[in-house]
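Form P-L/3: holo structure prediction, ligand coenzyme A.
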Amino acid sequence: MNVQLHMIRPAIVGDGGFLARLRAASLSELQLLEPGCAATFETDAERAFEGLLARDEIVARLLVVGGDVVGSACVMFWHRLPYATTPLHGELAGVYVARAHRRRGFARRLCGEVLAAAHKRNVRRVVVHPSPAGRALYAGLGFVPSGELRLGTSEGGYAVHSCGAPGLEVDISKITT
Ligand SMILES: CC(C)(COP(=O)(O)OP(=O)(O)OC[C@H]1O[C@@H](n2cnc3c(N)ncnc32)[C@H](O)[C@@H]1OP(=O)(O)O)[C@@H](O)C(=O)NCCC(=O)NCCS
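OUTPUT (holo model):
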């Protein structure tokens, strides 16, 4: 059996290019990015990730297998209105593992580590907007349906509707890695 060395490490300033490449691969696979737009997207996304890392608005973990960066998970932070405990919330996003390395528990570990890092920042709640493949993964990590509503655009104007792909949220204090 070919067992390659692997590690999960924190993303730091300078890793924006890796995060951008993985993000482009994920969006392409989910058919949310046209093949012809990937190169431009990656350039813009690298700049955006570098800014998020530099401003400490994101925590991320990278999966490295055989020296190649092949997976990621991020939590983005934002503040809601003042709250009795903390207004800080997070969104789990950018969860991706390259096809050759799937179903070996890497996404579960990436998410566990990045959620633990978010927990250390004292976030009140973390949400995720799952792809079909992500639903079982996040349910296994303790995420539950949240009943969130979303305001979206549609032909003819804005419409308030119940989210087509319902969001999930997790009580961060229950996460164990
Ligand atoms: C979703 C994704 C991140 C899973 O990565 P992975 O490393 O293969 O996941 P894991 O091995 O950690 O799987 C953990 C659990 O998630 C669930 N799971 C993972 N992939 C799944 C799939 N394709 N279909 C259904 N359940 C799946 C299973 O319950 C799995 O546990 P099991 O293998 O013991 O049954 C990966 O398929 C991927 O990158 N997909 C494309 C991008 C994407 O959809 N990202 C999520 C955005 S919200």
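COMMENT: The two ends are 27 Å apart (CA to CA).
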